[in-house]
Fold MlaB-like STAS domain-containing protein.
Amino acid sequence: MSFGRRNGLPDVEPMTPNLLVVTGRVTRAAVPGLCAELEALLYDPDGSVRAPDTGVDCDVGGVAQVDLALVEAIARLGLVARRAGGRKLRLRNVPPELRGLLDLVGLADVVDVECGTGTGTGTGTETGGGAGEGGG
């Protein structure tokens, strides 16, 4: 007796999402750098969009302070994702304070706020805003 082989795993996205990990305190001065890092994940060196069918995830579970500088960063990262083939930015490990602030400023509809602790094994970049970078 033999069994056929299953194709793929159930409930698993076929393409590994791009993952940007944001940690520490995000300042306004750090926002352009975060956008550049996300662009590096999404675009080939020749400027063409890399793997347009993959997701774009941003893990914000390690942020040190939830404030408007972080909200600005998320808004701009969402724009970068949309420019790369109409993708929607998905936030992972969102602190309750950030979820409330995104609702308050009307960005909850612009980005997907996922519940729980997503585990990303994709092309990851870990970034911290750094406490010494003015702004905020």
